[in-house]
Amino acid sequence: MDTQLTLVDMxxxxxxxxxxxxxxxxxxxxxxxxxxxxxxxxxxxxVKTNFKSTRTTVSRMIPGSDQGAVEVARIDRNDIxxxxxxxxxxxxxxxxxxLKKQSFTDPAQSKADSxxxxxxxxxxLREIALYExxxxxxxxxxFRASAPDESASLSLQSEAEVIQDAVLTSLIxxxxxxxxxSKWARVGDGVGQLIAQPLHAxxx
Length: 204
Known about the structure:
The protein is mostly beta strands. The protein has one domain. It is about 15% helix and about 40% strand. The chain has three helices and 15 strands. The protein has helices at about 95-100, 160, 165-180; strands at about 5-10, 20-25, 35, 45-50, 55-60, 70-75, 85, 95, 105, 115-125, 125-130, 135-145, 155, 185, 190-195. Strands 8-7-6-5-4-3-2-13-12-11-10-9 form a twelve-stranded antiparallel beta sheet. Strands 1-15-14 form a three-stranded antiparallel beta sheet. This is DUF6593 domain-containing protein. It holds the Pfam family DUF6593.
């Protein structure tokens, strides 16, 4: 199995950053939740997963529309056939072809000569951040797990807002992989080691 090993200092404070948009999750589970803009009651996304966890849909609310919400992405999980991801207006893709080791491209750029790549990386016990692959020092989005006095959140810079459907969909997959396969172990003086073993790493 191709295992990704990332070292994270669990005692490091969360970075102080300002985001253009902050979306708050109604629940800790990213599989069934709603997202609203911080400081408002405006719901932006609804995420639903069926009882058997074989399908997750991501719907974006359309204010003033008779439709109410539009399905923008769908994740289909299979025991025999490859898992797939489908974005609105694009054909289905094998999930492992689209999201490779936490790295992906926006579907709208997939046929470009040099599509921009984005990658999720853990930065803290509570945070994973998204970077443009060729700019590894400045995150364009970051997810923070909930705390006793703080809801789980997804923060977006302008570069992430234009691809936010792909950002949220990839986050759901990556975060679930960490939850299922990751192991936390304390070593030394409070330094944590995060061993991230993606569910489908063997086929990546």
